[in-house]
Design a protein that fits this description.
two-stranded antiparallel sheet, globular
């Protein structure tokens, strides 16, 4: 695992429904068994989850490869891996 980028959980985004007013913790390390969300598997690493809060209900594509430059959203980087 790269110290700056997490382990690749999957080479593609996770399609998720995000709900207005709810807070989500996106897994940045790639170790969570609850992808794309954090389950605290990062405890032995330097990673911390990316907190997400949205102003409206929306469909989102959260990065699965953990290499995005637009965290927590997929930017297509997985196509180059």
């Amino acid at each position: 695992m790269n110290k700056d980028k997490g382990r690749i959980a999957q080479k593609g985004p996770y399609e998720v429904e995000l709900r207005k007013g709810k807070t989500y913790a996106w897994c940045r390390c790639g170790l969570s068994d609850n992808q794309p969300f954090c389950d605290a598997s990062h405890k032995e690493t330097s990673f911390k989850p990316e907190m997400i809060r949205v102003d409206e209900d929306k469909l989102a594509y959260l990065c699965g490869c953990k290499q995005t430059k637009n965290a927590p959203y997929c930017d297509g980087t997985h196509r180059k891996l």
